[in-house]
Write a structure and sequence with these properties.
The protein has about 55 residues and is mostly helical. The chain has a domain at about 10-50. The protein is about 60% helix and about 0% strand. The protein is built from two helices and no strands.
């Protein structure tokens, strides 16, 4: 299933911003692992989409 332009939001995702703030509060040594985990989760979500959402028909 591909997403339409109306399904994309330009508003910030408050849950993501909150999670980023929590990661930023961690000790420097722990941040890389937390950002890596978040990156992997976001990548999995993107890969789960059709991938054609931004391409013209």
């Amino acid at each position: 299933m591909s997403m339409t332009d109306s399904e994309f939001s330009t508003e910030p995702d408050e849950a993501l911003l909150s999670r980023l703030a929590l990661i930023d509060e961690r000790p420097l040594g722990d941040r890389a692992a937390a950002f890596r985990q978040l990156h992997d989760e976001l990548r999995q979500q993107l890969e789960a989409t059709d991938g054609d959402a931004g391409r013209p028909a």
